[in-house]
Amino acid sequence: MIVTRLDRVLADRKMQSKELAEITGISEVNISRFKTGKITAVRFSTLNALCEALKCQPADLLEWHEE
């Protein structure tokens, strides 16, 4: 199972979802879905925008756990 860690990265950066949405151009709704893991797919362009804005690696945002 893949788990999202956007909430942790945002907390580490002391950034709110609204600010991330403004920086990336990704809607707050989609950021919320990513944060809560209620997504089934993510585009590389979205992942790239998040990593660029947060100065992080994709592995900081996504983590795999055995079910």
Task: Walk me through the structure.
This protein is mainly alpha-helical and 67 residues long. It has one domain (2-64): lambda repressor-like DNA-binding domains (434 Repressor (Amino-terminal Domain), Orthogonal Bundle), CATH 1.10.260. The protein contains five helices and two strands, in the order βαααααβ. The protein has helices spanning 6-13, 17-24, 28-36, 44-54, 58-61; strands at residues 2-4, 62-64. It is globular, with a radius of gyration of 11 Å.
Write the layout of secondary structure elements.
Blueprint: E1 2-4, H1 6-13, H2 17-24, H3 28-36, H4 44-54, H5 58-61, E2 62-64
Antiparallel strand pairs: 1-2
In short:
By secondary structure, the protein is mostly helical. Helices cover 60% and strands 9% of the residues.
Question: What does the largest sheet look like?
Answer: 2 strands, antiparallel
Mean pLDDT: 96
The geometry reads as: globular
Can you tell me the CATH class?
Answer: Mainly Alpha
Distance separating the two termini: 6 Å
Order of helices and strands: EHHHHHE
Please give the radius of gyration in angstroms.
Answer: 11 Å
CATH topology, what is it called? 434 Repressor (Amino-terminal Domain)
- CATH architecture tag: Orthogonal Bundle
Percent of residues in beta strands?
Answer: 5-15%
* Fourth CATH level, the homologous superfamily: lambda repressor-like DNA-binding domains
Q: Tally of extended strands?
A: 2
The share of residues in helices is 55-70%
Number of helices: 5
Our count of domains comes out at 1
